Automatic annotation (TrEMBL):
Transmembrane segments: none annotated. Coiled coil: none annotated. It holds the Pfam family GMC_oxred_N. This is Glucose-methanol-choline oxidoreductase N-terminal domain-containing protein. Keywords: Signal. One of its GO terms (molecular function) is flavin adenine dinucleotide binding.
Amino acid sequence: MARLTSRLLGLTQLLAVLGAVNGYVEMFSGLQARQINPGQLAAAYDYIVVGGGHSGLVIANRLSEDSGRSVLVVEYGYFDNNPAQVEPASATQYLARNLFNLSSVAQPGIGNRQGQVYAASVVGGGSTVNGMLFDRGSAEDYDIWERLGNPGWGWAGLLPYFKKSTTFTPPSPELTREYNITWDIEGAYGNGPIQATFPDWQWPGIKIQWKAWAEVGMPINIEGAAGDAFGAYWVPSNVDQQYRRSYARNGYWDPAANRANLKLLTGYRVNEVLFNANKRAESVTIQERGSANGAPTITVRATQEIILCAGWLHTPQILQRSGVGPRALLQQAGINVVADLPGVGSNLQDHPVSRAGFQYQTDVVPNPGSLNSNATFRTWADQQWQQRKGQWVLVMRWSPPRFPS
Ligand SMILES: Cc1cc2nc3c(=O)[nH]c(=O)nc-3n(C[C@H](O)[C@H](O)[C@H](O)COP(=O)(O)OP(=O)(O)OC[C@H]3O[C@@H](n4cnc5c(N)ncnc54)[C@H](O)[C@@H]3O)c2cc1C
Ligand SMILES: *[C@@H]1O[C@H](CO)[C@@H](O)[C@H](O)[C@H]1NC(C)=O
Ligand SMILES: *[C@@H]1O[C@H](CO)[C@@H](O)[C@H](O)[C@H]1NC(C)=O
Ligand SMILES: *[C@@H]1O[C@H](CO)[C@@H](O)[C@H](O)[C@H]1NC(C)=O
């Protein structure tokens, strides 16, 4: 009895939450014509995309260009329709429900400290919550993937696709000259839906910092996204000309949202991929977000392919749950082994972030602190932002120096 009551209570709370969410969603229903509820699921689709995040929305867009193919995207997160989502401040103010927030295992290299590890859980994935720093790995990073036995996944194979995604718009010639801002359109960009640019105002202290980098012998790069992602270089932001977030949702989902052959189910988790006797992936089981262990699941079939786009954290998890992973681990968890692949769930390379703070003996004004200390400057800055010129857009960053060993 106690159990039943608590279940009913859970359901009531859930309905209340759903009501609130639906109210929010309806305001934007024009953009979400292809969003379905579980009752509208077909038994089978040509393609099932697992995860409607950064890569999932791109893949779903490209696959559904052919109106003869049916595509289902299953996304654990919900839409975030808060208008602030596309403002630069969204890069630092997260809604809890938009993020998986985990602790790492103890890291021996930093005195066994644990790190906070984030992964997106929202339509658009990392592109919806990230810092909008438009950056790539170095050519060598991708070439190593290729050398591990993945033809076409090296730098030369991927660069045309990288370029295809993004249009770069240069800042004003005056600002470019004053700050010596550099980029390489030919080497890094194309004419895709994602927009990248620099804000048309910079903090003056940056000039001194550049001089310092040069003095200490830091290699200076013209462009970081053209294969040499090391040393000091200017990093654009993925924002449009009004400095609004340019991401998978407005670049790849919204333009495709009215395709009748494309469906998106939000608030559902893919638990596992089911294989047939020939080890061909045939279907997925899905379960409502927040529902209890053992709650009902729905099975949806794919007649062509199942494409895992659940990100670095959950794609390996889904594979392991599906019986693809290290044999000993799967057996320990009571999972039938479909393929013994020891690398699944290992060898993650993340990019650690560290910051260095400096106390200037002679401060350069204006600096970011002036926004709080100088009302005149603050007023000017607010006006700039109203006119969409602002410096709120993160301006630049240096990747850690990587010298050849
Ligand atoms: C806080 C933060 C800041 C970042 N800043 C930057 C930056 O400034 N510049 C930069 O280049 N990169 C940045 N990144 C990294 C970048 O955003 C990610 O590398 C990229 O978005 C990953 O894309 P993805 O498609 O692999 O995964 P994601 O975009 O994470 O998509 C995975 C999706 O799958 C969903 N999902 C997970 N499990 C399941 C399941 N079982 N069933 C259904 N759906 C599931 C998730 O909800 C998610 O939406 C940042 C990341 C974070 C989290
Ligand atoms: C993540 O969780 C930690 C502690 O569990 C908390 O301190 C932190 O604020 C959380 N971060 C976000 C963005 O919610
Ligand atoms: C401007 O940047 C380029 C490329 O980084 C560099 O070669 C040049 O020396 C810089 N010029 C000035 C005046 O800083
Ligand atoms: C405050 O900002 C204004 C406008 O940028 C500037 O002219 C003034 O010198 C600043 N005052 C101080 C004390 O820094």
